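Field log, afternoon session.

UNIT: design team B
ACTIVITY: writing a sequence onto a fixed backbone
BACKBONE:
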């Protein structure tokens, strides 16, 4: 999402370079932490891919990603080219929650955490919840 979404945006407010660098560093650090955790420290019993925790987590991740992608599509297409002003998104999960894109991403990473069952994946899911939860609350207000 960090690489694809910005490339698909038609128009928008410019992002300050410092904010971009911080986001990039976070993604690189988190990617390293998750990858290192899964490849070096995590051990799984035989048959883990058939375990209910993995299956439930995988489907949570998949559904969350689908919600996130669909919600981003709705947000990208809120305004016609050249149009400005605030618009309320409609459709998809936006009928149920104000920040459907945030909800999808939170669900995605809690599903990932359940599928992986590592402290690092849980830490990332909790960070996502607190950061995106606060952003969702601001958007709702």
């Amino acid at each position: 999402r960090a690489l694809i979404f910005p490339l698909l945006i038609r128009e928008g407010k410019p992002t300050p370079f410092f904010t971009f660098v911080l986001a990039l560093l976070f993604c690189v650090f988190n990617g390293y932490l998750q990858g290192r955790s899964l490849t070096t420290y995590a051990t799984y019993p035989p048959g883990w891919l058939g375990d209910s925790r993995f299956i439930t987590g995988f489907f949570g991740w998949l559904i969350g990603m689908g919600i996130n992608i669909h919600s981003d599509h709705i947000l990208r297409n809120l305004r016609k080219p050249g149009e400005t002003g605030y618009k309320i998104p409609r459709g998809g999960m936006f009928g149920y929650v104000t920040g459907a894109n945030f909800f999808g991403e939170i669900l995605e990473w809690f599903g990932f955490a359940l599928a992986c069952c590592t402290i690092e994946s849980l830490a990332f899911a909790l960070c996502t919840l607190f950061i995106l939860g606060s952003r969702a609350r601001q958007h709702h207000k």
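LOG NOTE: The chain has five helices and no strands.
NEXT ACTIVITY: expression trials, pending approval
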